[in-house]
Specification:
Chain lengths: 101, 496, 479
């Protein structure tokens, strides 16, 4: 792809988005993703050329509506299975470092 | 005498019924084949050997006791892609972040397989979280193509396709978000079916891009694909997007002729960038279909050039939310931290590979404040245009014929440094996912270098019967599937 | 209470989260229940396990629309769910399935009354979303219980129309009342059924633009809301008076310390990256469906109170007490209709029934005295079959064991004694036993008669007709 510095849009703030997504990145990763994502965004920029005025967005590929479940309670997982995969559990709880608000 | 592991499911089903072999023999032969070749191919990440043998013995006991088979799959082993939840098994999506996780529940398709008496043989390799087109993004190392171990098997269901093609599995279930069943089937010379969105319940499939993901079979021939689809298809109340439509007898649709069918060749799918060998094979396949009685003509899908861009915005946006749950709190790998945020960041930094991180960042960006309309919403509108392209084409024809991928299998490492180039390789499969329709990949020849090439048969929503009918007639006329990568074809397949 | 500083005005908006009264959670079949051991009401869906998928509880949608109809909202006939992304340990998927731009209910209003003055509070919207889990804090770690995760929550967003902590309190009480009336929520604060976030700003009187607001998160008592608002309004006024500026920020209420404090600020806190939930299909309600739900609505508390005044001739106050809870109002109406004596029905319910329930901390649903029994009891008094003291005794009996008042009266021989012969004898005995009181009466101390009537009543164990007793005594003392 175009590796020319001046062609980049510079729109994507990789560090900000990585924080949103709770990914800590090394400076090298940040720089590499910055470059690659700008290439990708330059490519997806072609969508801007399409006239989509009045076009309904497609969020679902199926035409159905109103799919509901009846309000009936059913048993879930046995407690030991609910916690079996927990990296840390105590007294029936999933343990995390102390939450500070 | 041919190895049992080299037959199709429907052939083995007949052999079991005729008492010519047992389920235990089939499972053992597959396990032997895996022992011989999985080291090289790395198609499986995890084997269910002990349970599979026990289940085979149980199936044999049932058969000996005169019980009628639970289904045409009874006592026959099937492999699962590592993103399908099966109770008691790992379900790691080839990611470090799910290290140690064991699923406490069955996916809908796994329930169906178990009820059908199928045996769960093992879990196949994939691109991490199905993000990739070569299976090189597996955290546990790549899978190799059985036809040329220097080449990729395609992806993301590369392990499944390599196992089926390499004689390590009779059939497998994979998932297809932008081509992840059809493209590896094409690279490995098997049959791969991406059903209509909603045809198969996604409950228990670890989501990559929920509005595009669909589970489907990878098999040795179209009859096996039809048979597997018949077992896994149908409405499931736990997946709101699963379709409430009757499941036809897919095998009944299979025949030898294509008289009266109108097949379209989308002009945009034969454009620049298409490998000449691939184009030659696809056009020859179209001629073959004409010879079988179909009417073949060119059609247009004008928004095709925008599909990859729209797809990568939509798929990554959904993925950025779908993968947020991997945080080291309830399951999987954890890297401790000073506070929950620190824990999340460290866990996710250590647990996800680069392609997954890249896509999460792209997707979160496309949804972030100030960019939603320009990227995500616009991509959804382009999705509508692509869907309309197909609707218009299907007013003129019954199904479309196209290549599956622009090139045959490429070399490992060839595209890993250039994500965008890798994404562009999905141009011929992505539109089908965006439109929510179905696509079938069947072998349609080989390059002079001996690499398989796939033909894609695209049909409208719930048009699986039609796609399978075309694929089957073509397959029976050409019998490309008889050339296999795991032994000389004459030795194996002659005796039907 | 008025604003502590009349030169400043406060604007308060509330985002109230109300747990709906369903059997199961919003997106899975786990029971919606309180008090179970941690992580025992969980499944792959509400634990956010890989591959699990949500399905929408039909009843939760119906209840939300019902709330919207009771609160005069416009119903969004085309509605959908969206994902709201943020990371938090109590959030299994690290996104919450909520509703962004197409909520089920739009607009709406709620009338409140503070110090006799009525005020209409406008609502912005009501949407449906899933609840999060619950965190428990230990010395160096926290633990998460996901039993509550996925419970159906309705978020009711008000416009900043509330001006004082008292108004906020009145709003919450009125909201709770109407939701309980509609059978929409138990609105049980102890069980965390109602929680709210407060938006509050102050501005100098006369200023047209609202001041910069602070958000106070996660309030779970109405009293807490009142205290937090009182504190926060004063704090903001103090800052403004000192020439400072209010920072737009999220604060938390420290109940023990009695003050709000800024939460650790997160710059990305509001970049929620909403997008349509791909796993759930849109909801499309028809006008007919909504009309049918509207026809099924209960009478609103305010309308019912007005009707009680008009139809039963009750004082405003009594009507207010009787309509405070739907079950009580229903009970009163059943009694009133059965006995036809509205005033007596009101008196009985307001005094004996509510007092007895209060003493035992019981709910009216647990009351053994059926409306028919209370009506019959009122009839017995009316027809002078029993005296009021006897009636209270019968009521106590009914309250403990239930049953039919006439049968109890008969069985226990409690019928009023109107036999003059018997009463004469008791009167004579009373005079004989208290000669000095009789003498007082004869000497002109008329109130002494009441004492003697009391003695007759006591001797008859309350059954004597007090009027006849007085007459008999007078006859004997004066004759």
């Amino acid at each position: 792809m175009n590796d020319n510095e001046t062609s980049r849009t510079g729109a994507v703030d990789v560090a900000y988005v990585a924080r949103l997504a709770r990914l800590s990145l090394t400076p090298e990763e940040t720089a590499q993703f910055q470059r690659q994502l700008e290439d990708i965004l330059a490519y997806v920029g072609q969508l801007a050329a399409l006239d989509v005025e009045g076009v309904e967005p497609t969020a679902h590929a199926v035409p159905a509506r109103n799919v509901f479940r009846e309000d009936v309670a059913r048993p879930g997982l046995p407690p030991e299975e609910a916690l079996a995969n927990a990296p840390s559990a105590r007294q029936g709880l999933f343990i995390v470092p102390k939450i500070v608000e | 005498m041919a190895r049992l592991s080299s037959f199709a499911l429907h052939e083995l089903s007949a052999k079991l019924a005729a008492g010519e072999c047992s389920s235990v023999e089939i499972v053992n032969d597959l396990l032997d084949a895996i022992a011989e070749r999985n080291g090289e191919l790395h198609a499986y990440l995890w084997l269910n050997a002990e349970e599979a043998r026990a289940a085979a013995a149980e199936a044999d006991r049932r058969r000996a006791a005169g019980e009628s088979p639970r289904s045409p799959l009874d006592g026959l082993p099937v492999a699962l892609k590592d993103n399908l939840s099966a109770r008691g098994q790992p379900c790691g999506c080839a990611s470090r972040i799910l290290e140690g996780y064991r699923a406490p529940y069955d996916a809908h398709v796994v329930e169906r397989l178990r009820a059908a008496g199928a045996i769960l043989l093992g879990r196949t390799n994939m691109d991490e979280f199905a993000m990739g087109s070569s299976t090189e993004n597996s955290a546990y190392g790549p899978t190799r193509n059985p036809w040329d171990s220097e080449r990729v098997p395609g992806g993301s269901s590369g392990g499944a396709a390599a196992a089926v093609a390499g004689g390590l599995a009779l059939a497998a279930l994979g998932s297809d978000t932008g081509g992840s069943i059809r493209q590896p089937a094409s690279f490995c010379g098997c049959v791969g079916l991406k059903p209509t969105y909603g045809r198969v319940s996604r409950y228990g499939l670890v989501a990559y891009a929920s509005s595009l993901d669909q589970i489907g079979p990878i098999a040795r021939d179209t009859r096996d694909a039809a048979r597997l689809l018949g077992i896994i298809a149908g409405r499931d109340a736990r997946d709101s997007t699963s379709l409430d439509a009757a499941v036809p007898d897919y095998e009944a649709a299979l025949g030898e002729r294509l008289d009266g069918l109108r097949l379209g060749l989308p002009r945009e799918y034969f454009g620049a960038g298409l490998d000449p060998e691939v184009e030659r094979a696809a056009r020859a396949a179209a001629e073959q279909c004409r010879a079988l009685g179909a009417e073949v003509f060119e059609v247009e899908l004008p928004h095709t050039p925008y599909a990859v861009a729209a797809y990568y915005l939509l798929a990554t946006a959904e993925a950025s939310a779908n993968l947020a749950r991997f945080d080291g709190v309830r399951y999987g790998r954890r890297v401790e931290g000073e506070d929950p945020t620190d824990l999340y960041q460290r866990t996710r930094a250590a647990g996800f590979g680069p392609e997954v991180k890249r896509r999460i960042i792209l997707g979160a960006f496309a949804l972030s404040h100030g960019y939603y309309d320009a990227y995500y919403l616009r991509a959804q509108k382009v999705r509508t245009l692509i869907r309309r392209d197909f609707e218009a084409a299907f007013e003129r024809c019954d199904a479309l014929l196209a290549p599956v991928a622009p090139t045959p299998a490429y070399r490992l490492g060839e595209k890993t440094d250039n994500p965008l180039a890798m994404y562009l390789g999905d141009i011929l499969t992505i539109p089908v996912n965006l439109a929510g329709i179905c696509g079938l990949s069947v072998p349609c020849g080989f390059t002079p270098g001996g690499l398989p090439i796939g033909l894609q048969i695209i049909a409208p929503a719930l048009g699986e019967e039609r796609a399978l009918r075309v694929g089957h007639a073509y397959e029976q006329a050409t019998r490309w599937m008889e050339k296999t990568s795991h032994a000389s074809p004459s030795a194996i397949r002659g005796q039907r | 209470m008025t604003s502590p500083a009349p030169e400043f005005l406060a604007s308060i908006g509330l985002e109230t989260h109300v747990q709906l009264r369903t059997a199961s959670k919003l997106f899975c079949g786990c029971a919606r229940a309180f008090g179970a051991p941690p992580n025992t009401l969980v499944c792959p869906v509400c634990l956010g396990l890989p591959g699990a998928m949500p399905t929408v509880n039909r009843e939760a949608v119906r209840l939300t629309v019902r709330a919207g109809l009771l609160l005069d909202c416009e119903i969004g006939l085309r509605s959908k769910f969206d994902r709201k992304s943020y990371f938090y340990p109590d959030m299994p998927k690290n996104y919450q399935i909520s509703q962004y731009d197409r909520p089920l209910c739009i607009g709406g209003k709620l009338e409140i009354e503070v110090g006799g003055a009525r005020k209409t509070i406008r609502l912005t919207r009501i949407h449906l979303e899933e609840d999060v889990g619950k965190s428990l804090h230990f010395e160096s770690s926290s633990g998460v219980d996901f039993n509550r995760a996925g419970a159906p929550l309705m978020e009711i967003v008000s416009e900043p129309d509330l001006a004082t902590p008292d108004e906020a309190m009145a709003y919450l009480l009125a909201l709770k009342q109407i939701l309980v009336y509609g059978g929409i929520s138990d609105a049980n604060l102890e069980e965390g059924n109602v929680r709210c976030d407060i938006n509050v700003s102050v501005r100098p009187a006369g200023a047209t633009r609202l001041g910069t607001k602070a958000e106070i998160k996660n309030m779970n008592t109405f009293k807490g809301v009142h205290r937090a608002l009182t504190y926060e309004i004063e704090r903001q006024i103090r800052v403004l008076r000192a020439g400072g500026a209010i920072r737009q920020e999220t604060r938390r209420w420290d109940d023990a310390a009695g003050r709000t404090e800024a939460m650790r600020s997160k710059e990305d806190a509001h970049d929620y990256r909403y997008f349509p939930e791909p796993d759930l299909l849109p909801i499309e309600l028809t006008a007919e469906e909504v009309a049918a739900w509207r026809a099924d609505l209960p009478e609103r508390p305010a309308a019912r109170r007005a009707r009680f005044v008009a139809a039963y001739g009750l004082p405003e106050y009594d009507a207010g007490v009787l309509t405070a809870e739907k079950a009580i109002a229903d009970y009163f109406e059943a009694v009133a209709r059965a006995c036809g004596n509205f005033k007596a029905a009101s008196n009985w319910v307001m005094t004996e029934v509510l007092r007895a329930l209060g003493e035992r901390q019981m709910d009216i649903a647990q009351l053994r005295v059926t409306p028919a029994a209370l009506a019959a009891l009122i009839g017995l008094v009316e027809r002078k079959v029993i005296t009021m003291p006897t009636a209270k005794e019968v009521f106590a009996h009914l309250f403990e064991r239930g049953g039919d008042p006439e049968a109890i009266v008969k069985e226990k021989g409690l019928a009023q004694v109107s036999d003059t012969g018997a009463i004469d004898a008791l009167a004579e005995a009373a005079i004989a036993a208290h000669p000095s009181v009789a003498a007082d009466y004869r000497a002109g101390k008329k109130p002494a008669l009441q004492f003697l009537v009391g003695q007759v009543m006591k001797a008859s164990r309350g059954k004597a007709n007090p009027q006849l007793a007085a007459e008999a005594l007078k006859r004997k003392l004066e004759g």
